[in-house]
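Try it yourself: sequence plus NAP, in.
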Amino acid sequence: MTSSSERVALVTGGSRGIGRAIVEALAGRGHRVWFCGRSADGVRTAEASLARAGAATVRGRACDVRDFKQVAALVAEIETTDGRLDVLVNNAGLGHFAPVDEMEPERFREVIEVNLLGPFHGVRAAAPLMKRGGGGWIFNISSLAAKNAFAGGAAYNASKFGLVGMSEAAMLDLRHDGIRMAAICPGSVATEMRTTLRAEPQDWMLRPEDIARVITDLLDFPERALPSLIEIRPSRPPKK
Ligand code: NAP
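Structure, out:
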C-alpha cells in the first residue's frame, strides 16, 4: 500500500449526493480521484464544478455499473493513466418503491442490477489490479435497509441485504491479499434520492459528508484492523 497522500480512488455514482461528498473528501486529502455516473451531462457538470472548487486531480467518466464491460474499461483506463487503484467506493445506487404485487419486474431488476450486480462488477474489475499493487480498500455503500425491511421496499431491501452478504463473503476472499472491504450502512441521508422518495424536513438527517468521513477515517485505520460492517444513523431522528 502506498502512503496515504498518494492513493488512487474510484467512486461510482460520484456526480451527486453521497458519492460526490466522498469524491470531494478524497480529493481534498490529496488523493487522485476518478468517479462515474450514467449521465454524461451529470458527470461533466460535476467534474467542472469540482475543478472550479480546486479539485485538480478529479476525473469523471460516464459509466453504467450494470455493464461489466464499461466498469472493466474504466478500471483499465485508471491502470493505464495512474498505474494502480488503491480505493474503490461502490456507491452508485437507486431505489424503486412499490408494494411487491404492483412492482414492475423491470424496475425490480434495475434495482438489483445497479445496487448489487454493480458493486460485484466493481470488485471483480478492481480486485486483480489492487492485488497487483499489494492491496487496497473497497467500500460498499449499503444501507440500514440491509437490516430493516419496510413495506414497499422489496427490491431495495433485497439489493441492500444482498450487498452486505456479498461484501462479507468477498472480504473473506480478498483480505489475505491485503484488500480490506467494508459494507457501510447509513440511515437517512439528506440527498436527492431521499427527497424524491418523500417531501419532508431534512435537518435531522445525516449529511453526505458524514458518510465521506467514515471512509476517510477508515483509510487512516491501522492496517492490522478491518472494520468490515459499519452502521451509521442520525443521532436525533423525529420520535415516532
Ligand atoms: P443520489 O443522490 O440519487 O446519487 C446517486 C448517484 O449514483 C448519482 O451520481 C447517479 O448518477 C449514480 N448512479 C445511479 N445509477 C447508476 C448506474 N447504473 N451506474 C453508474 N452510476 C449510477 O443517491 P444517494 O442518496 O447519494 O445514494 C448513494 C448511495 O447511498 C446509494 O447506494 C444509496 O442506496 C445509498 N444510501 C442512501 C441513503 C439516503 O438516505 N440517501 C441511505 C442509505 C444508503 P446518474 O443518475 O447519472 O447515473
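One thing you can check immediately is this: The two ends are 46 Å apart (CA to CA).
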